Amino acid sequence: MKLRILGNTLRLRLNRSDVQRFAEAGFVEETTRFGPAPEQCFNYRIERHEGAHELRADLFERRISIQVPSASAIEWVETTRVGMTAEQRIDGTSTLIIHVEKDFQCLAPRDDGDSEGFPNPNRPLANRHSDEDNVQ
Predict the structure, then answer these.
(1) How do residues 17-61 score in pLDDT, each as one tens digit?
(2) Residue 68 — φ and ψ, nearest 5°?
(3) 0.90 cut: is pTM over it?
């Protein structure tokens, strides 16, 4: 799972195995360690939440937690739907934009674990299938 933060925008991208874990366990969590002590760790988590009415994010101690309403989570996991987006009010003038997306493979092949991404619909057909699949 990848986390991108830019200003007041959070973007989580989950690859195929992350989405599978989310479907089975109801959450996926990652930890980034900055040092050996527990307080030197940063966590981010996405979780299916029965009581949530909309996609939302919270920050508590050193953890970002994104809650996904159960119905939305099930639809996202079981369909070709690519992502979910929400705007969360912070105060009278600010919002936090939250994106949760299925992570696609890069257009150019890479050697850094990109194979777990979902097949990229923008990749040329010849690069998505074996030669056998391209026979017309």
Answers:
(1) 999 999 999 999 999 999 999 999 999 999 999 988 999 999 999
(2) -115, 125
(3) no
Which tokens go with 89? 């009010």
Q: Which residues contact 66 (CB under 8 A, 6 or more apart)?
A: 10, 12, 44, 45, 46, 47, 55, 56, 57, 98, 100
For the sheet with 2-6, list strands across it: 2-6, 9-14, 95-102, 83-89
What are the structural domains of the chain? 2-103 (3.30.1360)
Q: Note the pLDDT tens digit of each residue in 60-83.
A: 999 999 999 999 999 999 998 989
Cβ atoms of residues 90 and 99 within 8 Å:
no
Tokens describing residue 101: 């997306």
